[in-house]
Amino acid sequence: MIKLQKNKGTVINLEPCRHCKREIETKKRQCPYCGTLNPTVKIKEIAIGIAAVTIIMYAVSFFINSN
Ligand SMILES: [Zn+2]
Question: Per residue in 5-38, pLDDT tens?
């Protein structure tokens, strides 16, 4: 098992950019290669977030209308 370590105990997490697929640090806010914002945030995660907000909005409007 190979573990990528920098200095002592510092593990760098790498994830592919969703646009150019190059490995970049997960903490990066912008891809250094193609300039995509939040490059490690997956489209699926964004979709789940939008779906969650939509469900909450629907639940709130249903609750308001029921009174
Ligand atoms: Zn990129």
Answer: 666 677 888 999 999 999 999 889 999 999 999 9
pTM equals: 0.51
CA of 63 to the centre of ligand 1 (A): 43
- d(CA 37, CA 24) in angstroms, rounded, equals 12
Q: What are phi and psi of 62, to 5 degrees?
A: -65, -40
Ligand 1: distance of its center to the CA of 44 in Å?
17
Cα 59 to ligand 1 centre (Å): 37
Pair 11, 5: CB distance under 8 Å: yes
Q: Which two tokens stand for residue 17?
A: 């950019």
